[in-house]
Amino acid sequence: MISIAKIKNSGAALAYYSERDDYYREGGGAPAAYYGKCAESLGLKGAMESRRDAQRFADILSGKATGKEARHTPGWDVTFSAPKSVSVAALVNGDQRLITAHDFAVKAALEHIEKTGIVTRQRGAGGGYEWRHGDGMTAATFRHSTSREQDPQLHTHSIIANATRDPRTGELRAIDSRELYRAQREAGAIYTSELAAAARQLGYEIDWRINEEGHPQLELADVPGGVRDHFSSRSQQVEGALAARGLDRESASPDAKQAAALSTRATKGEIDHAVLAARWRDDARTLGYDPDRAAPAPAWPDPEARRVAASAAVKQASEHLGERDARFSARSLEHESRLFAQGRADGSEIRAAIADLTARGELEERAVQVRAAGGRREIGVGFTTHAGIEDRTE
């Protein structure tokens, strides 16, 4: 799952994100790291290992580094939350491989956001506005392992600072967030599909569905629903707040969901992770779920089977898109293909399948109108199928 929230107080936000799971650093790990091409250009690369590092990022969030502190939006918190069953298997059963899979899926989603969602707006020569894709993002990621109710909840806060480089001048500029929010749906699908693909390769059976909003959701079949529910106090609180207003997760608007989340948010407390881990394991045993059960053996993928799955997903996606429009964008095709693949193929395999089907003539490249930065329409790369060609010639 993915959510985006505007950051209002850079100092308080960074203190919360960076200090909450500080125990990871003591153990030699690094749950906090910089991300993005623009971050690298500012000398922010790799793990965030000290409070001095954190202060450098805080200066960028506040606008101090760019001299634009007044009326400055610090940035956005893009949060990727693992499904509850993944959190249980990773944090209660201790399958560290799933934490690695989560990190990889987050990175894949951030790559998409950096490519499509980082846009800056500037005054043009004629007095009007010009929108340009920024030269990279300035971000820091913070991986956490608990919810505010101290349930196991693997999630990563990706803090995207309101700063990118103008590709023409190299100067730091603010971000126009409209494209960032537009990229949310696709980034969420990328996170979920890459996590599903990794979990399948690790040997887990996946339950996959598309909710009423068109977003993919997955759970590990190995973790019973009763166990997932027991460790989902936060979700139950939000659902209760929505129910009090006659809503549920499917019918509530994004604003209503955010209001419900804020109204039920508990104050962050001190966390003794050893005590928490022991409690989680005891709770699991009480529910009849063995926290010491062995993790599944890796299901080494058959390359041919994955190629076939990717090809089938692209064909299904192109047929689905072709029902609405004879031509469709490459971006839409890749997004829909991920939904049909259900983690049986990853993004690179889907892109390879699109190229293969195009080379074989089952897809044909066509120029299509696509939405560009700032909402403009421009000509981009798209596709059509044989059915689409036949419809236009009849």
UniProtKB/TrEMBL annotation:
TrwC relaxase domain segment(s): 11-286
Which InterPro entries does UniProt cross-reference here? Answer: TraI/TrwC_relax, TrwC
Q: What is this protein called?
A: TrwC protein
Give the organism, scientific name: mine drainage metagenome
